[in-house]
Specification:
alpha+beta, OB fold (Dihydrolipoamide Acetyltransferase, E2P), globular, binds zinc ion
């Protein structure tokens, strides 16, 4: 089943025709009745949209979908994207005892990222023989969409057409590799399975107790060691802080670390102020302890860089931008999502 919410279909019809929502709803209900209950209300909405000549699945002129527009249930989808990451080829044994292979890789365009899966030995060979590598552009025609554990996946069929570095205009629109990794996209924490830059919306559910203070150079803000900056020599260090938290967005949780400005913003106190307060109470964690009640459960939009912690091996985010969800921006974001 194609999961386009009926509200989205209605808003598309409204956008195209200028009809009132009530009128559109009536048309959908009439259609259900006309087809004597053979189709669901959702199905009827699709038909009404079609009657108005509205294409619910926007494609480019060549039929290529932007990654953002790849929806669950699509039985045929074509896409062009840049290969961001190739995962190792896996070998498995089928129920009949035959050996099979599968490989997956991540591609991206300016609108998002998606995992591609190859089952066909000839397609897998492209990777095994180094004919498809990270950074290459790939065009896949006639694949199908599946919901995997980590979000949507696009599976190639044996009949799918695979083109590496095709000479088409759409390929030229795809940002270079480093830019693609820098593009942040709003994601659910459970879908963060790889390093990259992401935006999440969630609540701080825990703060890890530690001594948050460290010394920085007053000129370059880099960490100093015993009053020495590697660039500026002996300096009068300033205090900075880091706060290590657990953020939960309802799908999963992740360690998010706030440094410097972001940490100050989180607790609403400058590092110097916090440091003086901690001295007064002879407890480095005191300033955070007193702010805990304000921070815990507060919903935040956090953009940050996710990388593997060398020590724990787990993915964690270093916050680089922190905002409180703004209802206007959030609803615009939602509208934009729906328009796509
Ligand atoms: Zn310095």
């Amino acid at each position: 089943m194609l999961k386009i919410p009926i509200s989205e279909i209605i808003s598309r019809i409204k956008e195209k025709t200028g009809l009132d929502e009530k009128v559109i709803e009536k048309k959908i209900d009439d259609k259900v009745e006309e087809l004597s209950g053979l189709v669901s209300r959702d199905g009827a909405a699709h038909i009404v949209a079609n009657e108005f000549g509205i294409q619910l699945f926007k494609t480019t002129e060549t039929g290529l979908l932007k990654i953002k527009n790849i929806l669950p249930g699509l039985k045929t989808a074509s896409v062009v994207g840049r290969v961001l990451r190739i995962y190792p080829v896996r070998v498995f044994t089928t129920k009949k005892g035959n050996e099979g292979k599968v490989v997956s890789f991540l591609i991206g365009d300016a609108t998002g990222r998606i995992r591609i899966v190859f089952w066909d030995t000839n397609q897998i060979k492209l990777i095994e023989e180094g004919k498809l590598s990270e950074g290459d552009i790939i065009k896949i025609t006639n694949a199908y969409v599946k919901e995997g554990i980590n979000g949507l996946e696009l599976h190639a069929r044996s009949a799918s057409l695979i083109e590496v570095n095709p000479n088409i205009p759409e390929a030229k629109e795809i940002p270079p590799l480093d830019e693609l990794w820098q593009l942040s996209e709003r994601v659910s924490i459970k879908n963060i399975t790889d390093e990259g830059v992401y935006e999440i919306r969630g609540a701080v559910v825990n703060i890890l107790e530690n001594n948050p203070f460290f010394d920085v150079c007053p000129i370059c803000k880099k960490r100093t060691h015993d009053g020495f900056c590697s660039e500026h020599g002996r300096v009068e260090p300033k205090k900075s802080m880091f706060i290590s938290t657990i953020v939960d967005d309802g799908t999963d949780n992740m360690r998010v670390v706030f440094f410097g400005k972001q940490a100050e913003q989180l607790i609403g106190m400058s590092s110097e102020e916090a440091y003086n307060l901690s001295k007064e109470h002879n407890d480095p964690f005191y300033p955070i302890e007193v702010k805990k009640i304000d921070i815990l459960g507060r919903e935040l939009v956090i953009e940050g860089k996710v990388s593997k912690n060398d020590f724990s091996g787990e993915l964690e985010m270093i916050a680089r931008r922190l905002t409180t969800p703004n209802p206007i921006v959030e609803s615009k974001k939602l509208m934009k999502e729906l328009e796509k």
